[in-house]
Design a protein that fits this description.
By secondary structure, the protein is an all-alpha fold. Helix 4 runs antiparallel to helix 5, helix 5 runs antiparallel to helix 6 and helix 5 runs parallel beside helix 7.
Length: 284
């Protein structure tokens, strides 16, 4: 891979463009995966009750084709160019002129920026490729959890296993650190969950959070877990206060923890080692 992309700048630009294209697909994943899970749950419940599953349009990541939620107009290829189509259409459906959510170009642009920066940060090679894949899945999980308070096993569990396999050759950390990180990441939040539940009788977080931190540990190693937990708390406090003050979100409305873990994982991916070294230096 290094031989194919000798120039770091060209590699970064190419990955940024790829990130824009994948960002368009991530929008589909964010929107449809929860719907697919709900459809599967209904089918399983009907099967357990011995009922026939109601006939309905089967949703997948590939079908049906993307369409306007207001008028049903099918999105053409020219209307689906990441960011560019949104700007040319002025954020409106070409058929009914209904507003298109700003979320779509934002996810596409964010995917492109993160992919390009990861390519620039790590340089041409498999480490950058793995980091970009890690970022894509974290990005999808962030918005799914924010929308639905769900962290699907179909994303979190593969992220754990891919991280362990990726680090077999020590691309980001050695395999021993990755394995310990996966185990420690899960047990850390699992312990907090049960302590909180025993003390209050309430559930403070979901099992998906355990699996997400386990995945971050598998990719970045156990050494980055304390920093990730600390950063997620800081990010959560800042965003939570902003939602209450700016968006006037009620304090009683639950706020998912997964997005803050994912954002902290992204920060730790790029600057975790330097931040940890600075923190330890201050303590010393």
């Amino acid at each position: 891979m290094t031989d194919l992309f000798i120039d770091p700048l060209s590699f970064a630009i190419g990955c940024a463009v790829l990130g824009l294209l994948v960002g368009s697909f991530l929008n589909v994943v964010i929107h449809r995966l929860p719907m697919m899970l709900e459809q599967e749950w209904h089918a399983n419940c009907a099967d357990l009750r011995g009922e026939s599953v109601p006939a309905s349009e089967r949703i997948s990541l590939a079908r049906p084709r993307s369409r306007c939620p207001h008028c049903g107009h099918q999105i053409t290829a020219m209307e689906n160019v990441p960011v560019v189509s949104y700007l040319l259409l002025r954020g409106k459906c070409s058929h009914c002129k209904a507003r298109i959510g700003l979320r779509y170009p934002f996810v596409e642009a964010l995917s492109g920026v993160l992919s390009g920066y990861a390519a620039w940060h790590f340089g041409p090679g498999w480490t950058a490729a793995g980091a970009i894949l890690f970022l894509w899945i974290l990005l999808a999980l962030t918005f799914i959890d924010f929308d639905t308070q769900l962290l699907p096993d179909s994303l979190t569990l593969p992220l754990v296993w891919i991280g362990l396999l990726f680090n077999l050759d020590g691309h980001l950390v050695d395999i021993r650190s990755a394995v310990i990180g996966a185990v420690a990441g899960y047990l850390a939040l699992w312990s907090v969950y049960w302590l909180f539940k025993l003390a209050t009788g309430k559930e403070g977080m979901g099992y998906g959070d355990f699996k997400l931190l386990s995945a971050i540990g598998a990719w970045l190693g156990w050494q980055q877990l304390p920093l990730t937990i600390l950063l997620s708390s800081v990010v959560g406090a800042v965003i939570g206060i902003a939602l209450i003050v700016v968006a006037r979100r009620g304090r009683e409305v639950p706020i998912p923890f997964g997005p803050y873990l994912a954002i902290a994982g992204m920060i730790a991916l790029f600057w975790g080692k330097s931040l940890t070294a600075s923190y330890l230096g201050l303590l010393a």
